[in-house]
Specification:
alpha+beta; Outer membrane efflux proteins (OEP); 10 helices; 4 strands; about 65% helix
Length: about 450
């Protein structure tokens, strides 16, 4: 007869393992808002979007130059050596100094005003693009945060299951040694224990990978996210109708705002193209002076002359080789395309919002079902343990009940995290996601 021995972890060992899995209490744990602020200052994708936003603002401001006056200063010095071969021979050098200040103010230039309006639309477009990047960062940070917590929970449950299976294995060995059980019970328990060991190794590696992903996102090492407090009451979905969420997206969703601004810019581009057929009117003025300190070739006396001009410059385009007509046709097609893109953005946002809404409602239902399943699994485990002790249940029944209980606990923890992330994704889907939404989740964390 061969005795199978297994070392059962002590309560102290399990406590140390649980602390390692959930984070050392001596270490400074970070909340979701803390890590989001760190990611906001470190994440390359968000910082790139922020710099692009600044560049877009500067590009939009350039359009203001189209309606403002322009001025320029020109100056020059020339020296002339005048010679003649006629008798008597004459050779006399002289110089000329001149400077001109000119200015122009557009009075009627429809194309310039359309470009100026486009510049203002570019500002709104840049704001919508930056808001998209901010919402994406909120979701990515939250996903990485709860992925790490889910991995910690999985490892904790696997360790607890390993301890429970080890106790069951030791019990089966004792019963076998005294002749009240067969070797089958011990071998079944040993097989289940070996399986849990493999699951523990996989859980440890998964936790390591999830922590590295979170570290890379926030620019810190050894991040330790705070867990959810117990008991936990998940937030409800408000409004309770999917259509209400869709209606909110019409006026605030960044994708719709970008598409709407692109359509407005395309319409203004048509106006610019049509301005190619229209006249232009500018106010022009100049002031210039010329100084001849040595005279000219006609006189040796010093001379100074000044010229001041003020007037209107009127230009009427007559024919440009059909370039203007073809440009109008091009911009009209691009305007129709922008209108179609806007409608496509509305449909896409409506679909994603409804999908996220029903996914969140389904997730909340799963949490309630898993909470009930956890209680049922615990009751089933207790009943199987009692039945095993009195001989009406076999060892594999207890092992299966243990596996079912800890699997339910893992699924329940994951479902709760999915509901919290689902709430953020719903707000991202309809475009209302803000930093303040993280504060509500922060209130659910361990203080």
């Amino acid at each position: 007869m061969r005795t199978i021995k297994i070392r059962v972890p002590s309560l102290l060992t399990l406590a140390v393992a649980s602390i390692w899995a959930t984070g050392s209490p001596l270490a400074q744990a970070q909340s979701l808002v803390d890590l989001y602020e760190s990611a906001r200052a470190f994440d390359a994708g968000y910082l790139s979007a922020r710099l692009q936003y600044d560049a877009n603002l500067a590009r939009a401001d350039q359009a203001l130059a189209n309606i403002l006056p322009t001025a320029g200063l020109a100056a020059g010095v020339t020296r002339t050596d005048f010679q003649t071969s006629l008798l008597p021979t004459l050779s006399r050098p002289f110089s000329a100094e001149n400077a001109t200040l000119s200015a122009s103010q557009p009075l009627y230039r429809p194309g310039n005003w359309a470009a100026y309006e486009q510049g203002k639309k570019q500002v709104y477009l840049a704001q919508a693009q930056l808001e998209t990047a901010e919402q994406d960062l909120i979701v990515r940070t939250s996903q990485a945060y709860f992925d790490a917590l889910a991995s910690q929970d999985s490892l904790t449950f696997v360790k607890a299951q390993k301890a429970a299976v080890a106790e069951q294995l030791a019990s089966a060995q004792r019963n076998f040694e005294v002749g009240t059980a067969t070797i089958t019970d011990s071998r079944e328990a040993q097989a289940r224990y070996d399986l849990v060991i493999a699951q523990e190794i996989a859980a440890e590696n998964d936790l390591r990978v999830k922590k590295l992903a979170l570290d890379q996102l926030v620019g810190k090492t050894g991040t330790q996210p705070l867990g959810l407090a117990a008991p936990l009451v998940l937030p409800t979905v408000v409004p309770v109708e999917a259509n209400a969420w869709v209606l909110q997206s019409e006026t605030v969703h960044p994708s719709i705002l970008q598409a709407r601004n692109n359509f407005d810019i395309a319409e203004l581009e048509v106006t610019k193209a049509e301005a190619g057929h229209k006249p232009t009117l500018d106010l022009v003025a100049s002031y210039g002076g010329t100084r001849n300190p040595n005279g000219t070739f006609t006189t040796t006396a010093n001379s100074n002359t000044t010229t001041t001009t003020v007037g209107l410059s009127f230009n009427v385009p007559l024919f440009a080789g059909f370039a203007t007509q073809n440009r109008i046709r091009e911009t009209l097609s691009l305007s129709d395309k922008a209108r179609t893109d806007l409608e496509g953005a509305r449909r896409s946002v409506a679909l994603s919002t409804r999908t996220a809404f029903f996914g969140l409602v389904s997730g909340q239902g799963q949490v309630k079902a898993l909470e009930a399943a956890e209680l049922s699994s615990q009751s089933a485990l207790d009943a199987n343990k009692l039945g095993y002790q009195v001989g009406v249940r076999i060892n594999i029944d207890v092992l299966n009940s243990q596996s079912q209980l800890f699997q339910t606990k893992r699924d329940l923890a994951r479902a709760r995290y999915d509901v919290l992330i689902g709430g953020l994704r719903l707000r991202q889907a309809n475009g209302t996601l803000k930093r303040e939404d993280l504060l509500a989740i922060n209130g659910l964390l361990v203080k």
